[in-house]
């Protein structure tokens, strides 16, 4: 998000907050749809700065149609508001203003109408299918979203997509690049949709109105970098929004200021001296190599947590209390606590839909019980590998995931052996316990920092070479 | 309520964290403090289901749903009364 986007978003949310409640929800929905287009970055493939947000909205509405048991009359009005907002974006084609709602001119009217018609046909199909073999339909939806994520996260497949999209847009496929497929917020959007599809498949009743659901999935402050809220919690806040802004305004202002400082002052300054894929071969001496690595660790923290602060602050302006995403992760005394406080909403999502169901299934198997250490190894490793692959299907992200998976496994085994001693120190020898905490925090931070090598350097050879220079 | 807290305290000390001699208060944070890790949390959910017949969903296993023994006891009683 650019500074100008943050400012427009803040003004828009404040204006929405003070509107009468009757108008507020529909205008909020209209505003959300416009902002998805506004935030989408420029794409070298013709018209795809329009089609990517259009597809995000289409997939969201189709998922809602498959899951929802909402019978509110307002759902049809919500659909009309969404279509009206999309049509307004399309009509800016007729205005001769560049970079207004989309980065380039929206597509020709005929193309737009074909896209709209395909979406409406799919919507009718989803409506027809939702009561027939719902489990199969929902499973298909889950598989489709996972497949979409794999396509967008695997560099070679993303390149193929770019070639294909360039071809259908009448552009040369020779110039295709991975960076062409910059689909704003798709990773977060897919995870929010997957949660609803999985919950509904597991028998949970989902009856959120269409407009509320779309605002939740595409909430502009959290669209590009999270946090990943839960729909039931978000819905409670949305239904309790009051016109009284004064209580939230100062808290929001403070949070946004902290976020801007972290993102645009601290993170951007650190990026000059931090380790990167371009400068990894320059750090020869172990001391400077560690410094560059620590600078990168701090840069990614300030950048990401700064974004989260801005999103949480902007949310407060409209009365939405987004969940915390970072709570001083580098000051935690072990790797398990680090992961409880780093990108917390992603970790919680993976726990809810991968780790907990796997562990529950394995622990419930009384006929052939597996040893706890094996269950922990399998579940921790799966969880961390998925978190690694979520960032990109590459060898280095896989190594980064495995690095933390083993870290968590070994910490768990170590804790089982030492927990009585640690408890003894905690309860009776406070000074020794503090010294132990300082030592364990130091070990944890060095372990996490060394892990970032695999995250920041895309080539395995370069990463190994840099790793060897640390010692 | 007190009986539920007593049962939970004993079970958590002996079967979940496996530290029978540890002092454990009913209002002591279990999840946010890291005393119960993610693996033990699933064991706790299975134990609650077995003893009290109350199901805690996978997505509910976090400190927002309950963080202390007192919170958990209230959740159990609430769900037993509403028949969830």
UniProtKB/TrEMBL annotation, chain A:
Keyword S-adenosyl-L-methionine found: no
Listed transmembrane segments: 6-20, 27-44, 50-67, 79-97, 109-129, 136-152, 397-415, 436-457
Subcellular location as annotated: Cell membrane
Keywords from the named record: Acyltransferase, Cell membrane, Membrane, Transferase, Transmembrane, Transmembrane helix
Protein origin, superkingdom: Bacteria
CC per GO annotation: plasma membrane
GO terms of molecular function: acyltransferase activity
InterPro entries, A to Z: Ac/AlaTfrase_AlgI/DltB (IPR024194), AlgI (IPR028362), MB_O-acyltransferase (IPR051085), MBOAT_fam (IPR004299)
GO biological process, one term: alginic acid biosynthetic process
Membrane topology: Multi-pass membrane protein
Family (UniProt): Belongs to the membrane-bound acyltransferase family.
Name of the protein in question: D-alanyl-lipoteichoic acid acyltransferase DltB, MBOAT superfamily
Source organism per UniProt: Flexilinea flocculi
From TrEMBL, chain B:
Gene3D superfamilies per record: ACP-like
InterPro entries cross-referenced by the UniProt entry: ACP-like_sf, PP-bd_ACP
Pfam families: PP-binding (PF00550)
Domain Carrier: 3-80
Stated name of the protein: Phosphopantetheine attachment site
Source taxonomy: Bacteria, Bacillati, Chloroflexota, Anaerolineae, Anaerolineales
